[in-house]
Amino acid sequence: MQIDVLTLDAGKAGTVELNDAVFGLEPRRDILHRCVTWQLAKRQQGTHKTKERGEIAGTTKKFVRQKGSGGARHGNKKAPQFRGGGVAHGPRPRSHAIALPKKVRALALRHALSAKANAAELIVIDDLSFDGAKTKALAEKLTGLGLKNALFVDATVNEGFARAARNLKDVDVLPVVGANVYDILRREKLILTKSAAEALEARLAS
Questions:
Q1: Among 50, 57, 122, 160, which is most exposed with the fewest C-beta within 10 angstroms?
Q2: How many folded domains does the chain comprise?
């Protein structure tokens, strides 16, 4: 697959040949869904917790006699049916992570890249060198490229570009080692540098 290489100033800088084994697959929604589910489940903290009746501070004295009250039989007020009592079957700290084989994760990343390429939402840029770290200046360049919602991936992220982009809404910047299915799919456009495309091919083509 051949694609044009652009510059940050929206000019042309030649073409690049992309490996069809990484960028030319027919996207499978089931594999992408499995990987996104795995990612979102893994990043849940799982620290939610409620107190059960054994953890509530209070007396265990029987507060009403067993018979003759005309009401139900009760022990202490830490039971779940009373206000201030424990929660029955409440959440406990746990891991929400699920297992996903490494080969499936790599396959999902290839399908995510292919999905962007097939939808004409993939842009290859020569490099992200940007001096000054001024958000306004970068916003003007992105407007010239027609980008409002995008993920930039570079082999080694330029510090000036990253600083200028961090205040832009719906614009993310990642190193190639951090490229993942969820972040690729959640943005409208995927912008790879030539070095990032080569690194992804080396990582995923084998």
A1: 57
A2: 2
Give me the amino acid identity at 74: H
Q: Which domain holds residue 74?
A: 50-90
Which of the listed residues 90, 110, 144 is the one where a domain comes to its end? 90
Closest CA to 53 of 25, 22, 76, 28: 76
Q: What are phi and psi of 136, to 5 degrees?
A: -60, -45
Query: Which tens digit of pLDDT belongs to each residue from 116-134?
Result: 999 999 999 998 888 777 8
- For the stretch 2-61, pLDDT in tens is 899 998 888 888 899 999 999 999 999 999 999 999 999 999 999 999 999 999 998 889
User: Which residues, including other chains, have CB under 8 Å from residue 156's CB and lie 6 or more apart?
Assistant: 175, 195
Q: Which residues pair with 2 in a beta bridge?
A: 17
Amino acid at 180: N
